[in-house]
From TrEMBL:
Substrate binds at R101, E218, F265, E266, Q267, M268, E269, E372, T373, S374, V375, G376. GO terms for cellular component: cytoplasm; extracellular exosome; microvesicle. Homodimer. PANTHER family: DNA POLYMERASE SUBUNIT GAMMA-2, MITOCHONDRIAL, GLYCYL-TRNA SYNTHETASE/DNA POLYMERASE SUBUNIT GAMMA-2. This is Glycine--tRNA ligase. It comes from the Bacteria. It is an enzyme of class 6 (ligase). GO terms for biological process: diadenosine tetraphosphate biosynthetic process; glycyl-tRNA aminoacylation. Keywords: Aminoacyl-tRNA synthetase, ATP-binding, Cytoplasm, Ligase, Nucleotide-binding, Protein biosynthesis. ATP binds at residues 250-252, 260-265, 332-333, 376-379.
Length: 513
């Protein structure tokens, strides 16, 4: 646990030191759980967004994008269920005065049980080697079976309590499990109560006539209310999808863990409209498709897992999370949900407008079902950044800090380094930048010895360093150094564009899916 905390502190420190993420309003001592993306962070975030958009929209003929407004008519949120049901169970510790989500306390407890089962599995794997049958072991080993059954029973009881709004039983469960305040160890809890997560605001010139509005807690509803607009103007046929990226706002009970849980965040969502009865087939399709997309970034298959929901949201008939192994353990990265026809029917009821698809083949109309994929851009940023940050011990015993960002996402694809600041080398370096900058984000670095510049670019996450030396003047070749392997090769200046394209072009990465 201490090592995890140290690693996480290193992530936060590195993000600030190298211009990725700053505390917001820092000169005024900051604002809790609010962050600004710096000069490198905004580029990484943009590249992640574009990588998602190309895979989700550009490569699918039947998926289009929109950009709906943050402010929406307040009845939107009544129809969607957010006014009445967008709550989290809140619990306070009487001694520490700390506030927590009751369900998260229970889920964290269950994660510890799951990790005990995983340790037993790893012991057996080491003992039996290639002969190890994990499935058989999980189903027959008494300890593992007991751990997993206990976890299942706890989560099912919690889900039942939340679904039935039996908050007294949720508190009783916390007390029976002897769950303590994570920071102080106190078990002196208040009753559990519901807390609505939406931010309210006003629209109007005076308090007397102002309309109550909400900052949107999700981007999905902007897609649903525009379903017919997009379908008719785009002549879309079922199945088809509508995608959107944008800001959402939630008054989280506990906003913590850096940019993992914030009150202002960015979502990347796609709502896929299907024929009723086909939704579970498409649900399975998008589960696998989205996992493959994540794996294409090369962060390691072992860092992802599915977590099927015990407690379903009010709109879903199936739901799973793609969880990622963050510095603080496995947590939700992306959700895939079968939302049924809840949203469109609810908006039909509250608006009085039909939101149906006319099928010319059957000469009939129906309300489509929806399969949703929703990923938090900030969480994905944290996943990529934290897993890429590494400390390496080199052959000579020295160490280096390197940010091994996927090259396709890196803020700068290459740094151009003149070996010395004279003899015409800076001028050649500038010529190279002027040529490459049309296709790639590149930077110029001439300060310090070239070895120190390599280390600086390693820490910044720059995949390639291109060094201009005296031989360049003779044969127009340069040395290109790979960040991850530290290997160097001599290449012609004329070949740099093609070489970088092979390494960083989005198409070459997405083809791996």
């Amino acid at each position: 646990m201490a090592k995890q905390e140290d690693n996480f502190r290193n992530v936060i420190s590195h993000a600030k030191e190298y211009g990725y993420i700053f505390p917001s309003s820092e000169i005024y001592d900051g604002l809790g759980a609010v962050y600004d993306y710096g000069q490198n962070g905004v580029e990484l975030k943009k590249n992640i967004r574009e990588y998602w958009w190309k895979a989700m929209v550009q490569l699918h003929e039947n998926i289009v994008g929109i950009d709906a407004s943050i402010f929406m008519h307040p009845t939107t949120w009544k129809a969607s269920g957010h006014v009445d049901a967008f709550n989290d169970p809140l619990i306070d510790n009487k001694d520490s005065k700390k506030r927590y989500r009751a369900d998260v306390l229970i889920e964290d407890y269950c994660e510890k049980i799951y990790q005990k089962a995983q340790k037993e599995i790893e012991k057996a794997r080491n003992r039996f080697g290639d002969d190890f049958d994990e499935e058989q072991f999980v189903n027959t080993n008494p300890r593992v079976v007991g751990y997993l059954q206990k976890k299942k029973e706890i989560l099912e009881r919690m889900a039942k309590g939340l679904e039935n709004e039996d908050l007294a039983d949720v508190k009783a469960l916390i007390e029976e499990l002897e769950i303590a305040d994570p920071e102080t160890g106190s078990k002196n809890w208040t009753d559990v109560r519901q807390f609505n997560l939406m931010f309210g605001t006003k629209l109007g010139a005076s308090a007397d006539t102002a309309m109550d509005l909400y900052l949107r807690p999700e981007t999905a509803q902007g897609i649903f209310v525009n379903f017919l607009n997009v379908q008719k103007t785009g002549r879309m046929k079922i199945p088809f999808g509508i995608a959107q990226t944008g800001k959402a706002f939630r008054n989280e009970i506990v906003a913590r863990q850096f940019i993992f849980r914030m009150r202002e965040f960015e979502q990347m969502e796609m709502q896929f409209f299907v024929k009723p009865g086909d939704e579970l087939k498409w649900y399975e399709h998008w589960k696998e498709t989205r996992l493959k997309w994540h794996l294409s970034l090369g962060l390691g298959k072992e860092n992802y897992r599915f977590h099927d929901h015990e407690k379903l949201a009010h709109y879903a008939n199936a739901a799973t999370d793609i969880e990622f192994n963050f510095p603080f353990g496995f947590k939700e990265l992306e959700g895939v949900h079968s939302r049924t026809d809840f949203d469109l029917k609810a908006h039909e009821e509250h608006s009085g407008k039909k939101l149906q698809f006319f099928d010319p083949e059957t000469n009939s109309s129906y309300v489509p079902y929806v399969v949703e994929t929703s990923v938090g851009l900030d969480r994905l940023f944290l996943a990529v950044f934290s897993k890429s940050l590494q400390e390496e011990t080199l052959e000579d015993g020295s160490t280096r800090t390197v940010l091994k960002l996927p090259a396709v996402l890196a803020p700068n694809k290459a740094a151009i380094l003149p070996l010395v600041k004279k003899d015409g080398l800076p001028e050649i370096a500038r010529e190279i930048i002027d040529e490459l900058k049309w296709d790639f984000a590149v930077s110029y670095d001439e300060k310090d010895a070239v070895g120190r510049r390599y280390r600086r670019q390693d820490a910044l996450g720059t995949p390639f360093c291109i060094t201009v030396d005296h031989q360049t003047k003779e044969d127009r070749t340069v040395t290109i150094r790979d960040r991850d392997t530290m290997q160097q090769e001599r290449v012609s200046i004329d070949n740099l564009t093609d070489l970088l394209n092979k390494k960083v072009a989005v198409r070459n990465w997405l083809k791996n899916i």
